[in-house]
Amino acid sequence: MRGAAVVLLALGIGFAHAAPAPDLAAAKVAVAAADAAAGRARAAGDQWMPTLAALKAAHVALARGDAAAAVTAATHARHLALLSLRQAAEQKRLWRNEVPRQ
Amino acid sequence: MRRWLLLLLALAAPVAAAAAPNPAADRAAFQGWFRHLFPQLPLAKYVDGPYNFSASERAQWQQIMELPPYGFAVDHGKALFDARFPDGAGYASCFPHGGIGIAQDYPQFDPKTGRVVTLPIAINRCRVAHGLPKLKLTTGDLADIDAYMVRTSRGHKIDVVVPDTKPALAAYEAGKEYFYSRRGQLNFSCASCHLQYPGHRVRGDTLAPALGITASFPIYRSKWGNMGTLVRRFIGCNKNIRSAPDKPDSLAYRDLEYFLTAMSNGLPIAGPGARP
Description:
The structure holds two protein chains of two kinds. Chain A is an all-alpha fold. Chain A has helices spanning 2-18, 24-43, 49-63, 67-94. In chain A, 27% of the residues are buried. Chain B is mainly alpha-helical. Chain B is 43% helix and 7% strand. Chain B is built from ten helices and seven strands. In chain B, a hairpin with a 4-residue loop joins strand 5 (219-221) and strand 6. Chain B is globular. Chain B starts with a helix and ends with a strand. At the A-B interface, helix 3 and helix 4 of A face helix 2 and helix 7 of B.
């Protein structure tokens, strides 16, 4: 049992090392996706400042050739933009709940 | 079948009527909400904003007002207002009553452009009409001219008109939606602070009630160390809740100012003001 666990662990480490680092092409795709999501958030009138900060970090990382950092920041930016889009969509209906009534 | 259709129509009519923009009814509900929150506070006192809720801040403010920090801005604004343009005209030529005592009538809806025009935007329009470049809408010379014009309107009751036309009501409704919509990473609306928690503290600041909040602008804010227009404050609020601010002359801020000021109709102009 213990031996099997050690083998599995070793295989796991092997796989972790084998995971390919993102290349610049993949980083460009990730940054483009984040740009698009942020654009939709802007169009919806609900852009978050942390989205812009993460997007900027992604572009900076891409410009210096750090694909891994670019993908991480772009993914973060895209997720924030998607959250703000969800917020904007929900608020189209929910804002009326905050209006005082006589 | 026809009877059913008539019945459905009859049921739908009141719903449609309730959804139609009604600034007068909104204002009654808005002001009623604050009267419910603070039954002892006279309506006209709301223009004092946060100073209604903290005796110590009020005492400090009263001392500050012995030599108002916006005094230099008003003087500078008057000098700019009185100066002639290269074509010989002046700001007075662009406004009714020579621009004196008119701030209570702004913002206005311009049917020609289909846009809301705030007083700072009207000042810039005047400049452009006389061949001068626009001024920055948030601070500086424009805020000083605004301060002078508002100072000449002090005590006049706010009287923002929302014409009963589709474009004007749409602008009003857009401002209303903006005010009540949560936004930014912190998921706050304008109403979250200034309608639901006026008088409470957010870190070092006491939250001002939305009612009467526009009456003191432009303001000299100690944090800024100079004058700022209402749009400058909107931008600051947006940043505080991690929402990317709009441009100072955006439709969003114009409409927001339109709605917010219309809710304070009947309250006296108290600007320019001084805030922490």
